[in-house]
Protein 1
Amino acid sequence: MTIAIVLGIVVLALILFSLETIPIEVSSLTIVCLLALTRVLTPEQAFEGFSNDTVIFIFCLLAMTQGLATTGVVQLIGQRLSFFARYGHQVFVLAMMGTVAVFSSVISNTVTTAAFLPVAIGAAHRAKVPKSKVLMPLAYASMLGGMVFLYGTSTNLVMSAAMQKMGMKGIGVAELAPVGLPVAVLGILVVVLLGPLLLPAREGQAGEAGWSLRDYLTEAVLPEGSGYRGKELGEITKGLGLRVIGLLRDGQPLAAVPSYRLEGTERLIIEGRREDILRVKDLRGIEIRPDMRLGDTEEASRDAVLVEASVPSGSPLSGRSLKEALFAERFGLVALALHRKPAFQRITKLQMLGRLFGQQSLSSIPLSVGDVLLLRGSRARVAELADGASLLVLSDYDYQPPRYGKALLAVCLFLGALAAGSLGVVPLSVAGLAGMLGMIATGCVDARTAFRVDWRVVLLIGSMMALGVAMEKSGAGMFLGSRVAEMATYGGPRLVLTLLMVLTILLSAPMSNQAAALVVLPVAVSAASQLGVDVRPFAIGVTLAASCSFITPLEPSCVLVYGPGHYRFTDFFRLGTPLTVLLVVFLVFAVPAVWPFDGSLPAAAAR
């Protein structure tokens, strides 16, 4: 009866996650509640997953990545990665997945995903690629890379230890490479080719998407004593990751070629995302054009916030420029940049470059209905716009200048925590917590920012761990496994290997990868005994299949990207299904080729 209850809850969980009629975190907690109410688990067992070492470590990793972001480390690495975007979206994703897979082959895939998550987001923004097109490939790349070497994922280590306990030889450090490396390459190529077709172009909820993807125009100048005077323009564009679309000197437009040497009297016409514009504002040696700013007193206000505001229909600003409307004096706000509809944006660029209607500046161009201004000012001044008559406030953003001076310290703390946890110097949770507290204590990130993590990740992983415990304790996992073992009498060893791998993949959804593999391993031993063949190809096949759970977002690496990528449960099914099928077909033939059923072990198996 208990087995039936657990299997029923598993089916319910998959239905709730697939439909997403209620938030996924609510569905997760519902599963935990049902396990406790049906007495499949005691309350202590049901909630034990939330105090699990891995869950705490993942939470601390997410908090530490906030520190990497606030110190500018993420922006710098993401800028290097976004370089490949100039060769196209698929080349960018290929470069990112290749880099992640290399790291994941020797570092835990969950750790690798958490480390590269903010980097991938930053690079995607710079490359103008929706996060939803990048983050799922990131998670998949980390899982694929974990199949190459023994230390790539904890599942490999757990299975190696279990095999030794059952009298088999443990998995060698590079034993999986002859199959794992081709699988990783094949998987990356499949994602690169199918991703653009099957992944959604989704950036989040209304308002958020516009804020993230909006391109702004602004003007910048080099003040007296600027370190950029006498240097090439390429040093600015390379260092800031923004686009200088044109130069004006003495009223004459100039081509914005990287080799142009700046004299200091030029006006730079800049187009970029919010972060690009704000980085210019806080960088020494280059500043937003003075007639777009207020005095130092207002600028230095501690209560200052950043908002974006649209010009509504009937606004007195419509048809008038910032100068004509005496915008700064009247509203007490700083206009940092302007966004317009694509057609208007192109015309505005031509106006500013003097190619259409003469040379103009942003502050002298008449505003139109639908224009969006990036504004800075006190909260009191922003509150005065509440009536929406002149400007309609769309959203605000609590911006903090990057703490570049703390970048090296943040990297050391982050890598130190990963090393200490991965090498077993201290438990993973302790290492993560120490690293997070170290970043807060040293000023790499403030506590409020550090705790801005996606709590849905923590709730989902903790809940799924409870379901995995229920599968083990109730015997539901072994029940399903025994049904597969019965198929040994109806087909050859290749069919049984296929069924064992499929069962492992299916069980890895409600259970952890390690638990699913450990449940299926005894079934594999029994099946090999009945067939009279070597058990090693079955054990290796189960180990590799445990890392092929691409169909659902319940694997920890996928859970990490679920919230930031604004994915739905079915998004993983669309791309994960063909990827899983192709890899299983490949493994069914590749595994017996390296680890034959007749027990003739290759030399690579030696430790």
Note: The longest strand covers residues 243-249.
Protein 2
Amino acid sequence: MTSQQRMLIPDDIHTNGATPNPWWSNAVVYQIYPRSFQDTNGDGFGDLKGITSRLDYLADLGVDVLWLSPVYKSPQDDNGYDISDYQDIDPLFGTLEDMDELLAEAHKRGLKIVMDLVVNHTSDEHAWFEASKDKNDPHADWYWWRPAKPGHEPGTPGAEPNEWGGTFGGSAWEYSPERGEYYLHTFSKKQPDLNWENPAVRRAVYDMMNWWMDRGVDGFRMDVITLISKHVDANGELPGVAGSLSDDLPVGEEGYSSPWPFSMDGPRLDEFLAEMRREVFEGREGFLTVGEAQGVTPERNEHITDPDNGELDMLFLFDHIGIDQPAGKWDMTELELHKLKRSMVQQQKSVAQRGWSSLFFNNHDQPRSVSRWGDDSNEEMRVASAKALAMLLHLHRGTPYIYQGEELGMTNAHFASLDQYRDLESLNAFDQRVNKAKIQDAASMMCALAKASRDNSRTPMQWDASEYAGFTMPDAAVEPWISVNPNHAEINAAAEFDDPDSVYGFYKKLIAMRHNDSVVAAGSFHLLDEEDAYVYSFTRTLDATTLLVVINVSSRMSCIPSQTAAALDKVSAEDIVLTGTNAEAIIRQIQSGTLMPWSAFAVEFAS
């Protein structure tokens, strides 16, 4: 079985500003979370052989690129995002030989493999970090080491170099008795930040990346890559540290200040990314680079992804993902559609001339969008809202990313007890907010976890209706590392694979449109009815062709707003190119001026 063929976009059609047009300008990426994808040895964890065994499924779906969350050797403190050896595979997932087999089998099917790369930090069990504990070792300055605050006993509360809090709770500094100093960890204390100011660090990272590229991988998704350049003063010191010329921010409700304004999109980021491009990718073809871009604005996205600047092909921006979290992750509110529109429009406009967008609602760090912004209250609404959100996202301009199970309409886990959670961030947040800072009661925090925990996206892939959803053998001696969602009996790949009206079947149609219709891949974007609270509609235009996309983003009947109604004035059934229901039903809705709940359709006509 081979993947769906993609048309080549002619160079006279503008994509990201490069000539020739990049191969990925009409490609679709599928993210795999390996520990939850397919277990072949019955240990309760997914593995590389499991991914290889499911390549035909992915080729049938039609995707072009597989992005693997980390499979490197790791203590698994943060599920592999704490790497102890960049050039080995963790035994949990298999061997280097298994990785080579996966690469070969994927390439046979026309699928590319992009590896997740974490180089803002390593594991504290990495050989580099172990060596850096010796102040006389060549690795001594490979991490952000700082002495205790003057007048404080090292290792005691309050002696940390500044007031920064870690993303996963507690201080962002950890004391090392071996060195007698503190090291910075933006995330877990087992994830010390690398010091990218040191050229030796950068050289070692580039050498490792070249080793993987030479082995056959097709590029990298770069985790929190926009944190590698810290904001330091003229003397190279971090804010709030003794002797620094820069002040720290005030302490917040959890007892710490935020490091984010001083860690994101630092002054040397462009320099580091351009250097990486030269040292690793110059002279290579057929690769893809995408960066996770905390703190990067749409305007900065244009600069970083402009091919003339030689940095990254695309970035994951997060302004649209945070629109329902005005007071932070654990205070999720209902979706206000106009906010999503404005955020998406800003992203689209910023790269209209140069650069490129990544399109995503789901990944391993986000709750399932069908539960977050859709409606999973019953089967009819789940299917309709999953299709509607898919159409909304995929028919924007950019490269769509599908997270495993999204193509099935998988939902949040709906866990009811704390012992069901495995995510470090979730467990630490509960402890910090409920037990330590006492700013939230247990019941409301459990509700927050049910809505926003990363574990919502990490439950096993739902392959079939068997005991463990086909993720592992029904008679396996070990249960999956995290509970299977109970609704796998109804929501699974086996039930949807051959059904053209399923969510899976709908995703196949969306992917085929991007492959074969240049207006989807490269057409200009224009939003209609910006202030409407329920209907999200827009046009994509290329030369004399216009694609009109209309979605009712709600579980209620909604009136077709004025600009959209005017655009639909002369539409006939023959113009409809994609819909979540049948064309006749859509025409009846257009004629009545009212859209059914989660109605979604696209029409294409001569401009």
Note: The mean pLDDT is 96.
